[in-house]
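> example.struct
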């Protein structure tokens, strides 16, 4: 194989590789092309996804608001419970004082 034959063989191989690459590229482009109906479906899916995302954000806001209300109500309930416990302790102390008073009064009469 002389120099000219080598150059021609290399040129033919490179040209064939170029043609094959172009054909494969065209075929991939042709097969992966999005049709207008597919674009409409994608647009619908994108719109539904956007609406679902907005609905999720609204639900999160509602849950956060409800959580804040419940936390506030829990705080009020805890305060009421502490107040009730204090009142019960005061009542118990007063009951104990009255018992002692009654015992003293009954003890004197006996």
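> example.seq
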């Amino acid at each position: 194989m002389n120099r000219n034959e080598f150059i021609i063989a290399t040129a033919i191989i490179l040209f064939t590789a170029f043609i094959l690459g172009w054909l494969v590229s065209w075929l991939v482009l042709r097969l992966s092309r999005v049709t207008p109906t597919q674009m409409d479906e994608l647009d619908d899916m994108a719109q539904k996804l956007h609406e679902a995302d907005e609905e999720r954000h609204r639900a999160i806001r509602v849950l956060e608001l409800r959580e804040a209300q419940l936390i506030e109500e829990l705080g009020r309930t805890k305060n009421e419970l502490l107040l009730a416990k204090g009142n019960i302790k005061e009542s118990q102390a007063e009951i104990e004082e009255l018992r002692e008073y009654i015992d003293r009064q009954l003890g004197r009469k006996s």
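> remarks
Helices lie at 3-31, 36-109.
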